């Protein structure tokens, strides 16, 4: 992983048939660890499907699926240390789940409730970021703070391929390089920014090439390969902890779903490309791998699916049973202390509410 | 004459002006094959080609900066910003360049461009998709800021915006994109960019609003009529430059004024209208001017957005209060 090699090649351990294309390093070869990774992939997939169903039945707002891109987020979640800081974008529920954000909190967020960003079990990660690419700038600030406190931790920030067209992305990357900040950039290149294909987004040979201009070491990983992603993110974090410099990963995946539940990809995505991508998606591949190399059988598989489904179902129950916020809560977090003029507005709001009920 | 929704009327106006002006270009995110996330540009790339209707990479500052460059050389760019919440990266270009190019060059260069953006709450959208920050733009000298409130006004005002020689921020109240249809003659006729629209005549109170909030103001007016209160409703529509004279004329007649807007109260456009009324016609007022607005908070996420947005009930209550002054 050096910035010298500008011939970026896609790193892979598992081909789309789940066959190892190179031997697993010894630190990653434990059955429990490999199955734990699978479990995170499955729970993310099941949660995703449940969220779409909730949206379709009017119980959730617009939701951004991560179908087909789960390997990226799961690997990040598994590789990070608890004290590292995660600065996500909206398609990062896989990592959020690994970082201790509760499933019901994720549902609250997409259900239009601010408490979904008030993580009860996770104190320092950022909430999901919607204004594209702005999060990259926060990440370098977080990295600066970590460095300042002489903590050997890393700020991990994610974004999409489309996000790499925006100034904030280049600005943050450049500063990370110039100031030598412990920041890991992971780009989910899912080939689409809503309806715009990545080929129309940039003439750069790869997204990883963009890092070179900023003097930031980079590599490109098969984002549908959970093993390659896990090893790649672990190595990158290790290197950052060692030399304190930023690193950049382009994870190549495919968005085998609509952009969000408000989108209709059939308007712009060719059926053939989608079908091809579905052959390469991470869950099928990983299951084949476990079957071949870890004696994983159908019974094991359905047991794991059932356990994960139960977890998801319980979270949905919690979500549905969550009491609404108190009336006027939206005034209370504007400042540490409610200023007098806002307190008046709040009182007026409550009076009006009572009068009209 | 076709019956069109507001979003269809916008599409129709774009189509009409694309036919009338072969130097008109549409640029933005997802405006091509996808036809815009709300379908405002649906079918336009098919009809006019990839050269004239094109998807840009994801870069709002560059979209507006590029439009400025195009406009300076005689093209007519119509840029779409996908949601108002994502226009802020382009504020630098809008404020420092689009609004100033004519003045800086003493008229040698100018900036005839339109920036369209959907705005406002009420559609259960995700975070950052529901704010109303029109007064940020109204504060910038050199811009026109236009907000339609019906399909017909969307058509006529967009045609006017495209034909105007200066930069126009065209804000589309997405809550009413598909809220009812109106018969529209696709004849390319423009509406004026410098006058309010009188939507309902009345003698007791002048109710001033714009955009989606017109729905609540008209509703309130109907209900108030049943209580014997006769409300005049004015759609400001062109919030910058502001046609204050029409508002003053109305207030001179009614002696009472309520301004309703979805945006936060402090420094919202209601403050400007109120100040102008105080300056120019304070003696005509029988009652204090009232503003019924969003609160000075972040727009709540959608579970609570209805608590933020002014209801017809709040407008009615203000009207009843105003009538206590005689
Ligand atoms: C600054 C900004 N502009 C536009 C949008 C609207 N928008 C939301 S997602 C998206 C496409 C993002 O594509 P990409 O970065 O590739 O991420 P992906 O959704 O594919 O994971 C756009 C244009 C936004 N949220 N923020
Ligand atoms: Mg993408």
Could you please say which CATH topology of the largest domain in chain A applies here? Rossmann fold
CATH domain class name of the largest domain in chain A: Alpha Beta
Tell me the greatest interface.
A-B, 46 and 41 residues
Report the principal-axis shape of chain B. Answer: globular
Element-by-element helix/strand order of chain A: EHHEHHHEHEEEHHEHEHHHHH
Enumerate how many helices of chain B there are, as a single number.
Answer: 12
CATH architecture annotation of the largest domain in chain B:
3-Layer(aba) Sandwich
Low-confidence stretches of chain A: 1-6
Architecture blueprint of SSEs:
The complex is a heterodimer of chains A (357) and B (326).
Chain A: E1 10-11, H1 31-56, H2 70-79, E2 85-87, H3 93-98, H4 103-110, H5 134-148, E3 155-160, H6 167-178, E4 183-189, E5 192-193, E6 196-197, H7 198-201, H8 209-213, E7 217-222, H9 226-243, E8 247-252, H10 271-279, H11 282-294, H12 298-321, H13 329-332, H14 340-356
Parallel strand pairs in A: 1-7, 2-3, 3-4, 4-8, 7-8
Antiparallel strand pairs in A: 5-6
Helix pairs in contact in A: 1-2, 1-11, 1-12, 2-9, 4-12, 5-6
Chain B: E1 2-4, H1 6-20, E2 24-28, H2 44-48, E3 53-55, H3 60-72, E4 76-80, H4 91-98, H5 101-104, E5 114-119, H6 134-138, E6 144-146, H7 151-163, E7 168-173, E8 182-184, E9 197-200, E10 205-209, H8 214-226, E11 231-235, E12 238-240, H9 244-254, E13 257-264, H10 269-281, E14 290-294, H11 305-308, H12 312-323
Parallel strand pairs in B: 2-3, 2-4, 4-5, 5-7, 6-7, 10-11, 10-13, 13-14
Antiparallel strand pairs in B: 1-8, 6-12, 9-11
The complex binds thiamine diphosphate and magnesium ion (MG).
């Amino acid at each position: 992983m050096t910035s010298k090699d500008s011939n970026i090649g896609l790193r892979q351990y598992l081909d789309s048939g789940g066959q190892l294309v190179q031997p697993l390093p010894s630190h990653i070869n434990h059955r429990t660890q490999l199955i734990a990774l699978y479990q995170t992939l499955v729970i993310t997939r099941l949660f995703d499907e449940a969220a779409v169903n909730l949206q379709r039945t009017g119980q959730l707002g617009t939701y951004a699926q991560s179908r087909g891109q789960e390997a990226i987020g799961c690997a990040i979640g598994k590789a990070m240390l608890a004290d590292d800081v995660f600065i996500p974008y909206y398609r990062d529920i896989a990592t959020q789940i690994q970082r201790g954000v509760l499933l019901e909190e994720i549902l609250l967020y997409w259900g239009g409730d601010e408490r979904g960003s008030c993580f009860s079990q996770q104190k320092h990660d950022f909430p999901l970021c919607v204004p594209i690419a702005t999060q990259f700038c926060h990440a370098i600030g977080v990295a600066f703070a970590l460095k300042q406190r002489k903590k050997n931790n890393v700020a991990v920030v994610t974004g999409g391929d489309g996000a790499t067209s925006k100034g904030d992305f280049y600005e943050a990357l450049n500063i990370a390089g110039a100031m030598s900040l412990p920041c890991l950039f992971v780009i989910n290149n899912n080939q689409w920014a809503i309806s715009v294909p990545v080929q129309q987004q940039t003439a750069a040979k790869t997204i990883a090439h963009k890092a070179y201009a900023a003097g930031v070491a980079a590599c490109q990983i098969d984002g549908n390969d959970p093993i390659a992603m896990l090893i790649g993110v672990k190595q990158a974090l290790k290197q950052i902890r060692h030399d304190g410099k930023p690193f950049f990963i382009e994870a190549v995946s495919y968005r085998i779903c609509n952009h969000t539940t408000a989108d209709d990809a059939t308007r712009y995505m060719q059926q053939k490309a989608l079908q091809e991508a579905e052959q390469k998606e991470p869950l099928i591949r990983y299951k084949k791998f476990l079957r071949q190399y870890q004696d994983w059988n159908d019974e094991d598989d359905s047991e794991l699916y059932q356990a994960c489904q139960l977890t998801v179902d319980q979270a949905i129950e919690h979500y549905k049973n969550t009491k609404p916020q108190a009336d006027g809560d939206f005034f209370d977090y504007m400042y540490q202390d409610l200023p007098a003029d806002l307190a008046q507005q709040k009182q007026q709001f409550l009076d009006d509410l009572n009068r009209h009920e | 004459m076709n019956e069109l929704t507001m979003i269809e009327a916008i599409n129709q106006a774009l189509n009409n002006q694309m036919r009338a002006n072969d130097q008109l270009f549409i640029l933005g995110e997802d405006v091509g094959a996808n036809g815009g996330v709300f379908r405002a540009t649906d079918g336009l790339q098919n009809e006019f080609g990839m050269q004239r209707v094109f998807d840009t990479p994801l870069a709002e500052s560059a979209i507006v900066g590029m439009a400025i460059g195009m406009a300076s050389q005689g093209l007519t760019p119509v840029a779409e910003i996908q949601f108002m919440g994502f226009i802020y990266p382009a504020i630098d270009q809008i404020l420092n360049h689009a609004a100033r190019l004519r003045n800086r060059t003493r008229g040698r260069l100018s900036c005839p461009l339109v920036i369209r953006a959907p705005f406002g709450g009420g559609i259960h959208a995700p975070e950052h998709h529901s704010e109303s920050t029109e007064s940020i733009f109204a504060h910038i000298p050199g811009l026109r800021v236009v907000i339609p409130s019906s399909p017909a006004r969307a058509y006529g005002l967009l045609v006017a915006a495209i034909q105007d020689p200066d930069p126009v921020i065209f804000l589309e109240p997405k809550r009413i994109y598909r809220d009812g249809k109106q018969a529209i003659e696709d004849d390319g006729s423009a509406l004026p960019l410098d006058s309010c629209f009188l939507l309902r005549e009345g003698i007791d109170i002048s109710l001033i609003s714009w955009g989606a909030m017109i729905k609540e103001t008209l509703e309130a007016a109907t209900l108030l009529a049943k209580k014997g209160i006769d409300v005049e409703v004015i759609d400001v529509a062109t919030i910058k430059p502001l046609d204050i004279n029409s508002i003053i004329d109305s207030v001179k007649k009614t002696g009472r004024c309520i301004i309703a807007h979805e945006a936060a109260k402090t420094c919202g456009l209601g403050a400007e209208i109120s100040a102008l009324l105080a300056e120019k016609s304070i003696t005509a007022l029988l009652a204090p001017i009232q503003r019924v607005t969003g609160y000075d908070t972040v727009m709540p996420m959608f579970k609570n957005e209805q608590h933020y947005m002014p209801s017809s009930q709040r407008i009615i209550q203000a009207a009843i209060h105003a009538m206590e002054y005689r």
